[in-house]
Write a structure and sequence with these properties.
- The protein has 610 residues and is an all-alpha fold.
- The protein has a domain at 81-374: MetI-like (MetI-like fold, Orthogonal Bundle).
- Helices cover 73% and strands 0% of the residues.
- The protein contains 30 helices and no strands.
- The radius of gyration is 27 Å and the shape is globular.
Length: 610
């Protein structure tokens, strides 16, 4: 009996081994395995290696610090960690910037969620006039670069604290205090304007799924409107509110452009500007510690958000579609609600863009007389500025930055879109679940790392030669590689979602007909997924057009793109020229967003029409 059992067990093991061997042999004939392994190596190098490199730099003696640490270069040390967390300088280096960052993020969360929550409710649950138009128009501030709003703010409120041209109010005779012109308050206001549309999108989606019959039932039972709001609607909206708050906090931690424009000139440091200062002064070890802190906060915040979303899935709200579509009349609040929505659109879109444009055609800021208006800063020649002799449209540096923008961001976006689709193909088609899971996780990693910290990580890895790879700092290649890695969370998720909807039957039929893998991809997969591929290319392009964090760390004057070129003009106090460049970037971002909506047919307001 024992002998029979042993023979049976051995036969089962042999059969199982033969099945595994057969699956492996079949899989090896499919190029999806080779493609998956190549992608795994590529993303390990582009994403995982930079993160490991900068974390290692936080505990290794850097060049020039041997005397300070009393250890040889390359030795293990806790000097930088101790200096950041527990030295006499730690308050300046870490704790005060951390406190400033947290206070700005908290203020932005409270204000953006308050304004965005009201607007989301008006759009989704009331008979707001022109609600379809508002559903799209109120999202526009989120499409604009944050520093568009920051530069518009300085154009109006700037005082003489940091020199250069004064703001409009100063020229009109109103002395603006520092707390209004720079620092915490304007940063909170601007970030709130930028993130309120984000709250509208997330909370609006949750409100659309909330069955209005729950509210009707409570009112029939005698519950007041306030009780319905606070005991029914608000608890059910809590997952969406907490998620939007946490995502805003994670984004604020790595926000660079607004603190750079409104905080750095007056010494109001945040974590991102402290990291930038450390890199600018070549304090590599301290920069590594700062980047690690920003990474840790970003990872922790998004981990909490993921846990909360898992918890939220335990609850479901099921109701009739007709019930969910019912909206409340506003009655006597109709005019006030419409005015509130219009005021947000004016403050978030009309005033900033109008301010930037008017500033570009004024010789003296804030002087609204006919003789003060000019187009010299656009098409003029022989200007009296030292480093800008002609208008923007006649300046070679502007066109060079524009060419770099199209070349660098275009190449990175195209590569991201194609790689994202390949990742989706491998994740869905791979016979080895481990390979697909690895690609899914590693391509999501940059989303957990704020842009400014990821740029520092890329710089750490590629600033010096690594084996056969030469030092890439100062070249366009490092920018392209950084952008590809930074945009992979969106490109890969788009590719995975697209491939999950494509069955195997078309490919199997082509395989039977003798078509090879490349022919199947070019003739079947790519044409079917052309919309998904277009989105996966255009989304990184728009994000790259608006992006600052990666470029400000990695770009040099020879590789300037429009964003870094505009910030250099800001540093030179060439306000009119800088605002002209920013205005063009904003228009490009808006045009790209509209183009995506047209290509995909997924406009923001879709589904909200009556």
């Amino acid at each position: 009996m024992v002998v029979i059992d042993e023979q049976t067990t051995g036969a089962r093991k042999s059969s199982r081994f033969q099945r595994v061997r057969h699956r492996f042999a079949v899989a090896c004939q499919d190029p999806v395995i080779a493609i998956g392994c190549a992608l795994a190596v590529l993303f390990s190098f582009l994403i995982l290696a930079p993160v490991i490199s900068i974390l290692a730099n936080a505990v290794i003696v850097q060049i020039g610090d041997a005397a300070r640490t009393r250890l040889p270069e390359g030795a293990f040390t806790l000097y930088y960690v101790t200096r950041a967390f527990a030295s006499r300088m730690s308050s300046i280096l870490l704790w005060q910037p951390l406190l400033n960052t947290a206070s700005v993020a908290a203020g932005a969360i409270v204000l953006s969620m308050s304004v965005g929550g009201v607007l989301a409710w008006l759009i989704n649950r009331t008979e707001l006039p022109a609600r379809g138009w508002f559903a799209t128009a109120l999202i526009v501030p989120f499409m604009l670069p944050t520093w568009t709003l920051a530069l518009a703010w300085t154009t109006i409120f700037k005082n003489r604290t940091v020199g250069g041209q004064p703001g409009w109010l100063e020229n009109l005779g109103f002395a603006t205090p520092d707390w209004l012109a720079y620092g915490r308050l304007p940063m909170i206001v601007i970030l709130s304007l930028h993130y309120a549309p984000f709250v509208i999108l997330i909370l609006g989606s949750a409100l659309q799924r909330l069955d209005a019959q729950l509210e009707d039932s409570a009112r029939i039972l005698g519950a007041s409107r306030s009780r319905v709001a606070f005991q029914i609607v608000l608890p059910l909206m809590r997952p969406a509110l907490l998620s939007s708050g946490l995502l805003i906090f994670a984004d604020c931690i790595g926000e660079f452009a607004v603190p750079y424009v409104l905080g750095l000139p007056v010494g109001f440091d945040t974590l991102s500007t402290s990291l930038y200062r450390a890199i600018s002064t070549r304090q590599t070890g301290m920069a590594a510690v700062m980047a690690a802190v920003i990474m840790a906060i970003g990872v922790l915040t998004l981990y909490i958000d993921t846990r909360m979303m898992r918890e939220a899935r335990r609850f479901a709200i099921v109701g009739g579609k007709g019930a969910m579509d019912r909206r409340r009349p506003l009655g006597r609040w109709r005019l006030a609600a419409t005015g509130f929505a219009l005021a947000f659109f004016a403050v978030g879109v009309v005033i900033p863009l109008s301010t930037l444009f008017l500033s570009t055609i004024m010789r003296v800021p804030g002087r609204f007389t006919p003789e003060n208006f000019t187009f010299d800063y656009w098409i003029g020649t022989g200007l009296d500025t030292v480093a800008l002799r002609n208008g923007i449209l006649l300046t070679p540096e502007f066109w060079a930055a524009g060419f770099n923008t199209l070349m660098i961001i275009g190449a990175a976006s195209l590569a991201s879109g194609v790689l994202g689709l390949l990742v989706g193909y491998v994740v869905i088609r791979s016979p080895f679940a481990t390979l697909g899971a690895f690609l899914r996780q590693i391509t999501f990693l940059p989303y957990l790392v704020p842009g400014i910290a990821f740029a520092a990580a890329i710089l750490t890895l590629f600033a010096v030669p690594r084996g056969p790879i030469p030092a890439l700092y100062g070249t366009s290649i490092i920018l392209i590689l950084a952008l590809i890695a930074d945009q992979m969370p969106f490109a890969s998720r788009s590719g995975i979602a697209a491939m999950a909807q494509l069955g195997k039957e078309p490919e199997e039929a082509a395989r039977v007909a003798g078509a090879g893998w490349w022919r199947r991809m070019v003739s079947i997969v790519m044409p079917i997924q052309k919309r998904a591929l277009a989105s996966a290319i255009l989304l990184p392009f728009i994000s790259g057009i608006k992006g600052v964090s990666l470029f400000i760390i990695l770009a040099v004057p020879a590789t300037d793109v429009l964003t870094t070129y505009s910030l250099r003009l800001v540093d030179y106090n060439y306000t009119q020229a800088a605002n002209a460049v920013v205005l063009m970037i904003a228009l490009l971002a808006l045009f790209g967003t509209v183009l995506i909506n047209r290509l995909t047919g997924n406009g923001i307001a879709k589904g909200l029409e009556s």
